[in-house]
Amino acid sequence: MATKGPALFSEIGKKAKDLLNKDYGCDQKFTITTESDTGVVLSSTVAKKGGLSAGDVAALYKHKNAVVDVKVDTESNVWTTFTVTDILPSTKTVASLKLPDYKSGKLEVQYLHEHATFSTAVGLNQSPAFDFSATIGTPSIAFGAEASYFTASRNFAKYNAGVSLTKPDSSASVILADKGDSLRASYLHHLSRLNGGAVVGEVSRRFSTNENTLTVGCSYVVDPHTVVKANLNNHGNLAALLQHKLIPNSLLTISGAFDTKALEKNPKFGLSLSLKP
Q1: DSSP code of 164?
Q2: Helix, strand, coil proportions of the chain in percent (round to 5)?
Q3: Do residues 159 and 145 lie in contact, with contact meaning Cβ atoms separated by under 8 Å?
Q4: pLDDT digits (tens, 9 = 90+) for 51-99
Q5: Nearest-angstrom CA–CA distance, 16 and 204
Q6: How far apart are CA 231 and CA 217, in angstroms?
Q7: What digits encode the pLDDT tens for the residues 164-200?
Q8: CA torsion, ordered 172, 177, 183, 189, to nearest 10 deg
Q9: What pTM was computed for the model?
Q10: Is 75 exposed, middle or buried (0-12, 13-18, 19+ CB in 10 A)?
């Protein structure tokens, strides 16, 4: 569902966050994905974390403006998500449920307008939680806020606010979160010298503990099939990642993490292989 207005509140700062965090991991994971002529996408994942192994099987089906996504894992949990766009103009409706936890059901409605976006989600149980978010502005500059209200305790579990500035080659955001206890500011800039890669910096402060964290990262496009990413923060945590397309639609990811300030420097490495024949 395309829009010429501001993005949802969840998109504020997302590009910088993804560059610093997405696809990093110290697990071993193998995924196979296939797609049929009828539009059904099947995927199977096996992952190993530490000495534990887990897996899941997922199916996704798209038909016109509706998407059905079902996933079953090795612990007999079943996730079901049903998404429909444009039931009403410029809207998206998402219904989700996890079994056997019947109280986990949630219904979300998103409305995207030329000058504002709204999102409302409600839990499908006797004492539901309500999530609200709204942004106003344009694709270049947006102001937004979000909140969660628990009817059982009759209080707000969270309320956050933020602002984002977006240009073709850069984006910046500032988010006040954790009920005003933390502040996070980030800036991302795409550089032609990195062959389409980017550099990013993020500063966060938690007022209750006077803790400051500075994280810098970058991505470099080695060639059309290979991307390298890395990040480092002021606490000495260093992480690096390499992604390579083995064949079309098949992605190999190798990542590692290292605590440069630890007395016993034990690096951790992860391997992820995703195949889409």
Answers
A1: E
A2: 5, 65, 30
A3: yes
A4: 778 889 999 999 889 999 999 998 889 999 999 998 888 899 999 999 8
A5: 13
A6: 4
A7: 999 999 999 999 999 999 999 999 999 988 888 999 9
A8: -20
A9: 0.84
A10: exposed
